[in-house]
Structures are given as structure tokens and as C-alpha cells.
Amino acid sequence: MPNLKSAKKRMRQNVVRYDRNVQVRTRIKSARRSMMDALEAKDAEAGAVALSSYSSVLDKAAKAGIIKKNTAVRRKTNAANGLRKIA
Fold first, then answer.
1. Fewer beta carbons within 10 Å, N or C terminal of the chain?
2. pLDDT in the model for residue 1
3. Does residue 45 belong to any structural domain of this protein?
4. What 3-state DSSP class applies to 33?
5. Averages of pLDDT over each 10 residues, the chain, 87 residues
6. Is residue 77 a part of any domain in this protein?
7. What is the number of alpha carbons within 13 Å of residue 59 lying toward its C-beta?
8. What are the backbone angles phi and psi of residue 16, rounded to the nearest 5°?
9. What angle do CA 41, 50, 72 make, to 5 degrees?
């Protein structure tokens, strides 16, 4: 347990940031799951909608610094390539 006032504040901030990061990572996983479901069903229209939302979620996470920019780009590229294969 921290003794200094600034350390206590830092601990509170870490809890808030951790909760926010978990929420965003969960959103990423959910969007990826819906994308993969559309690809497995070979549904190009649903895949296009899922790719759009997945890309948006990844961009927002990268902008917030929760994942790195290149990670977001790589994941979007892989998802787009998967959609391109079924289209």
C-alpha cells in the first residue's frame, strides 16, 4: 500500500486505466469474433460490415495507445485478406 499522496493517486489512476484497457481489448475480441464468424459462414456482405466495425475498433484502440499502430494495421490487413478470399 502506498504511503505518499502521489503514489496513492497513481494507484487510483492505474485502476481506472486498467479497467478502460480491459473494456477496449474486450471490444476488439468481440469485433474479431464477429468478423471470423462472417468469414466462416462465407458471407461477404456481413463480412464487409464486420470488417468496417473491426477496423474502427482497432483504429480507436491504436489511437488511445492500447495496442500499437502497426499491430492494428497488421490485424486489419489480415482481416481484409480473409474477406477478399471469400468475395
1. N
2. 87
3. yes
4. helix
5. 95 97 98 95 94 97 96 97 92
6. yes
7. 7
8. -65, -45
9. 120
The answer to whether residue 2 is domain-embedded is no
Distance, in Å, from the CA atom of 49 to the CA atom of 57, rounded to the nearest integer, reads 13
How many domains in the chain? 1
CATH number of residue 68's parent domain: 1.20.58.110
pLDDT at 64: 95
Question: Could you give the angle at which helices 5-40 and 69-86 cross, rounded to 10 degrees?
Answer: 10
Predicted model pTM: 0.88
What is the domain extent for residue 49?
A: 7-86
Residue 65 lies in a domain: yes
Return all residues near 72 (Cβ < 8 A) that are at least 6 apart: 58, 59, 61, 62
To the nearest 10 degrees (0 to 180), the angle between helices 69-86 and 44-64 is 180
